[in-house]
Amino acid sequence: MTRTSPPAAVANIADTAVAARVRAVVRPKIRAMHAYPVAKATGLIKLDAMENPYGLSGEARAEMAAAVANARINRYPDGGGDEVKAALRQTQGIGNDVGLVLGNGSDEILQLLTMLVAKPGATVLAPEPSFVLYRTLAEAFDLRFVGVPLNADLALDIDAMLAAIARTRPALVWLAVPNNPTGTLFAVADIERIVTAAPGVVAVDEAYHAFAEVSLLPRVLAFPSLVVVRTLSKIGMAGVRLGYAAAHPAWTTEIDKIRPPYNVNVLTQAVVPVLLRHGELLAEQAAAIRRERARMAKELAALHGVTVFPSAANFLLIRVPDANAWFQALREAGILVKNVHGWHPLLDGCLRITIGTPAENNAVLEALSRPT
Question: How far apart are CA 317 and CA 343, in angstroms?
């Protein structure tokens, strides 16, 4: 039977009916929001998402292939992810007395923590600019979001943070350590003051810990309000989508109650323990990225009109004379970076550039050395 498209008039009526139903059902706040943008990077040098640019060794690939081949994809995954948790404890130095919750990337952990505190009138607080999902998730769950501006040099304004905590009594405080998109590494003493002062939970997001070599994870049980959030994405496993929260078991017990029962798939659970056994390779790659970060910071700072902000992550934030023009020049050279101009007043004129391989970084320097 030949299928024909409905007449245009019928299609318009259907579209109008659907739009009316959406307006009637979906909260206005959600309808006013925008989806998180993910740029297409086919054919481009991809330096916009803070991924590890290095691949796996042949040995690691072979072990991963065997693990995938033996995965029982006809069965649901282990709901608790016990083998993954055991591998994380062994390789990340997490004691058996620390609670662990696994997520489909750390994004899901962020969502679960926000959901956990979503009571009427509750407040979420974070420095700004920081990871946009902190605000997005708070607004999606009808929570009040309070952003505390960083200083002009993108350092943490600890006095303003403490004053905001005293004034708003937040249920949840977010601290990205190092911060995204600035790369700033907040002082541990300041983090401790915030953790001590906050009346609710303080989530320290350590997505970039491998490049900062600073972590509160070993001390997670020393503070009753502290939850440390991590992801494997930045160290070379962005595609497997695994994040986790480490905290006192009293916190992780509550988070587990709202976690979907099979949120970490069979293939991820098969692959992650294998890859974590190659910790030496991952550490070498992180060290290579740190070396390239230092080289890139020096080379970029030598370009006319460029300001490079200090970074403890696997990216650099730079301020240029015309962010839109420089972004387009890089795009035309086949390089995709993140244009953060317009995200926040403190990011005016800024681009965020992920540290790639030496060849990829050289391509950035060559493109930016040309007149725009």
Answer: 13
Q: Is residue 13 part of a domain?
A: no
Question: Is there a domain that residue 28 lies in?
Answer: no
Which of 31-35, 131-135, 205-209 shows the lowest per-residue confidence on average (mean pLDDT)?
A: 31-35
pLDDT tens figures, 113-151:
999 999 999 999 999 999 999 999 999 999 999 999 999
Residue with tokens 């929260």: 245
Provide the pairing of β-strand 144-149 with 172-176: unpaired
CA distance 119 to 262: 26
How many domains, in total, are found in the chain?
A: 2
Best CA proximity match to 273, nearest among 126, 105, 63? 63
pLDDT in tens, 285-310: 999 999 999 999 999 999 999 999 99
Q: How far apart are CA 172 and CA 137, in angstroms?
A: 12
145 and 223 share a domain?
A: yes
Average confidence (pLDDT) over 341-363: 98
Judge if pTM exceeds 0.90: yes
Radius of gyration of the chain from its Cα atoms, rounded to whole angstroms: 22
Domain that holds residue 325: 45-56+280-367
Question: Do 97 and 209 lie in a common domain?
Answer: yes
pLDDT value, residue 2: 53
Q: Same domain, yes or no, for 131 and 247?
A: yes
Is there a contact between 186 and 177 (Cβ–Cβ < 8 Å)? yes
CA distance 117 to 239: 29
Q: What is the rounded CA–CA span in Å between residue 15 and residue 18?
A: 5
Q: 153 and 199, same structural domain?
A: yes
| Same structural domain, 114 and 217 | yes
**Greatest distance between any 2 Cα atoms in the chain:** 72
Q: How far apart are CA 255 and CA 340, in angstroms?
A: 32
Question: Which domain CATH number covers 146?
Answer: 3.40.640.10
Same domain, 270 and 319: no
